[in-house]
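In this section we walk through a basic example: taking a raw amino acid sequence and producing a predicted 3D structure, encoded as discrete structure tokens. The instruction is simple. Fold the sequence below.
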Amino acid sequence: MTYDEAKAALTSLGDRIKTNPMAKDVLLKNYDPEVDVDNFQMLYNTIFFTSPDPTREISKSEALGFPADRTFIAWLYGKMVGFIYLTIEDDPLDTGLTVGAVAGVGVLSNKRGMKIGAKLLERAIIYFEDKNVSKLICEVYEKNSASLRMFKGLGMVIVGEMLLEEMQPDDYTPQK
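The resulting token sequence is shown next.
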């Protein structure tokens, strides 16, 4: 979707957030790797292991690599319940445009439906405001119907598919 369309969707997002009593208690803060890394690593791994299309866990060093200025954490009553990670990149459709990308978003499964994801998307749209992006894009696993619904509800449309040939690296070993 164009950035202008995403910006226009802010009103709808705001209305959905306001009608959910739990969402008003959600605080969004920038990720602070020095303070938050252990909890963020646990949050990330919990979200993705309980998703419809599980992926591999991230290590502490990978969790430290998430940039503080583009990673936002949703907090509810003092606990991390979701996150969004943003990037700015060239349009993968080779349009020559610069796009704002939702490179990762997740909410704990027992907190879904509380408009926490909508609040994170609202934060993403605001983040991209002064970044000179023309479009807002995201990648969603096909089996992740909750994320697909959320993004479609924002007005996004599916424009392509990508085949992931290998979900995990050959040298992947679960951490204990």
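Looking at the output, two observations stand out. The helical segments are 3-18, 33-49, 60-64, 116-127, 145-154. Residues 33-49 form the longest helix (17 residues). In the next section we compare this with other chains.
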